[in-house]
């Protein structure tokens, strides 16, 4: 049991270091422009060494494009893939995506979204790379949906459902950021998915 706890603690520390590096990179890049920020400055702002930075990211561009939302937990993914009738698909998708949202520390998460939005508006080349990464994540979701409904990932239905689900998540997050983090993101996501289900 001790080994499991130690492994969990190490993983949480690694996730915290990655988050701190991402946040430092985003904040500095949003304030000054990415070309005016060095890896050394990002590392110093996160209270780690440049060597530690390169343990997590190969370049500062990779740090600012790192997803604040890491994706569904393995447990949520397993539950989704084992899912029940197709009629529960929309609700199961909501739970699946909600598992990737932060449990606490919500305001810093909203701050990251604002920094990234500002950065992407001023750095179009990064916007293309970010969307490419986002589409890759959407494709992974389509694969899980295809496995759940017994379809092929390249077929229209799993791809369309994945596109709608990720659009719903983005919409809920935009509403949340506009509320400056005061609203409950999970409630907004639930409202959005209910509207989506009614629409479908």
Shape: globular
Strand content: under 5%
Structural class: mainly alpha
State the helix count: 10
DSSP E strands, number: 0
Mean pLDDT: 85
Keywords:
200 residues, mainly alpha
Provide the fold topology.
Elements: H1 2-32, H2 39-45, H3 50-56, H4 60-65, H5 74-82, H6 89-98, H7 106-122, H8 124-149, H9 156-178, H10 185-199
Helix pairs in contact: 1-2, 1-7, 5-6, 5-8, 6-10, 7-8, 8-9, 9-10
Describe the structure.
There is one protein chain. By secondary structure, this protein is an all-alpha fold. 76% of the residues lie in helices and 0% in strands. The termini are far apart. The mean pLDDT is 85.
Kindly summarize this structure in a few lines:
The protein is built from ten helices and no strands. By secondary structure, it is mainly α.
